[in-house]
Amino acid sequence: MIRLGLVAMLLALVCVPARADELPTGTEKEREFKKKVEAATEAGLKWIADTQHRDGHWEANGGQYPASMTALCGMALLMEGSTIKEGKYSDNLRRAVDWLMDRSQPNGLIGNPANAAEQQRYMYGHGFGMLFLASVYGEEEDGDRRKKLEKLLTKAVEFTGKAQTNRGGWGYVSAADGSDFDEGSVTITQLQAIRAARNAGIAVPKSIIDKAVKYLKDSTTPRGGVIYSLAHGGAAMGGERAPLTAAAVACAFSAGEYNSDLAKKWLEFCATNITLGRGRMGHDEYLHYYYAQANYVLGEDGWAKLFPKAAKDTGLSWHKYRVAMFEQLITSQNRDGSWSGGYIGPQLTTAVYLTILQLDKGLLPIYQR
């Protein structure tokens, strides 16, 4: 039986696609469309800022996953263009950074494993926390604070390396605490986090990355999809997970692996097995968080460059993704600026959708083409 975790409790998104000719192509329509995206984004960001707790954190329903929610909400605010020094949300970002830094453990873990709301899934908070703090570190100008962040991130990378399993992946908790259990979603969270740290200038041992890449390779079936976990055996056909495969693509792209055979294999699986706008797919919020990143990096001609023999106008592109998704995201937004969530709650849903809607800004290195 698959363990229930943060990903397993994500609420699915029902997408109703717009026709290709409905995406604004003329100057006036394009301006109108951009205004709708900007209005939805501004309302969502305001809701995020207004729901931040006084001490600087966000949390999901029932107080769940405070480290993860703080990091993801913080990333959404960073994508707006604010920094901890200036901008509309600078105060919110400073308080979020302080909250996470205060909960960094001596062993490098970002989060509080003694907190009942985190202790069973603390590697998610650690990974997303590292992603957020590494993104902040790149913009930090204060010397003392920068040194503190550098030390914290260096220890965080060390903890990630020690928490890695013998197979090269990561589980909901460290290898020592989780009897060497690992699975794909946390593995990808850690990989993207250490990539962000490396982008910011933090040293990351190559051995950690190499083992993790091998884990994902070993998790890939002959059809090109990534399975849930290697902990109980090899990659068997039929056990592929589209959300994990989409996440693997985004992770490969963020690491600069744009033309590897493995990334191309994952992309082909996604193109065949992810159909936008036709009902529900399991773990849609998780899927779209990463799938949007992959499509954004592809842009309009990335697929043709990777697959030059493919028929014209086939494959994936950012334009196609926006056609299928953006209008639905905008029209499904609540009046207060949030997006409804299920068991996890609106903080997760809103942060994920704001990430997608702001990719075109291209401000954060981890999300850039």
What's the CATH first level? Mainly Alpha
Order of helices and strands: HHHHHHHEEHHHHHH
How many runs of DSSP E, i.e. beta strands? 2
Structural class: mainly alpha
Uncertain runs: 1-22
Give a verbal description of the structure.
This protein has 369 residues and is mainly α. The protein has 13 helices and two strands. It has a single domain, classed as Alpha/alpha barrel (Glycosyltransferase), CATH 1.50.10.20. Strands 1-2 form a two-stranded antiparallel ribbon. Helix 2 runs antiparallel to helix 3 (90-102), helix 2 packs parallel to helix 13 and helix 6 runs parallel beside helix 8 (242-254). The longest helix has 24 residues, at 27-50. The two termini are 38 Å apart. Residues 1-22 have low confidence and may be disordered.
Properties at a glance:
mainly alpha; disordered N terminus; globular; Glycosyltransferase; 13 helices; two-stranded antiparallel sheet; 369 residues; single chain
How is this structure best summarized?
With 369 residues, the chain is an all-alpha fold. The protein has helices at residues 27-50, 66-80, 90-102, 122-137, 143-163, 184-199, 206-218, 242-254, 261-273, 284-298, 302-306, 318-331, 346-357, and strands at 226-227, 240-241.
Write the layout of secondary structure elements.
Elements: H1 27-50, H2 66-80, H3 90-102, H4 122-137, H5 143-163, H6 184-199, H7 206-218, E1 226-227, E2 240-241, H8 242-254, H9 261-273, H10 284-298, H11 302-306, H12 318-331, H13 346-357
Antiparallel strand pairs: 1-2
Helix pairs in contact: 1-13, 2-3, 2-4, 2-13, 4-5, 4-6, 6-8, 8-9, 8-10, 10-13
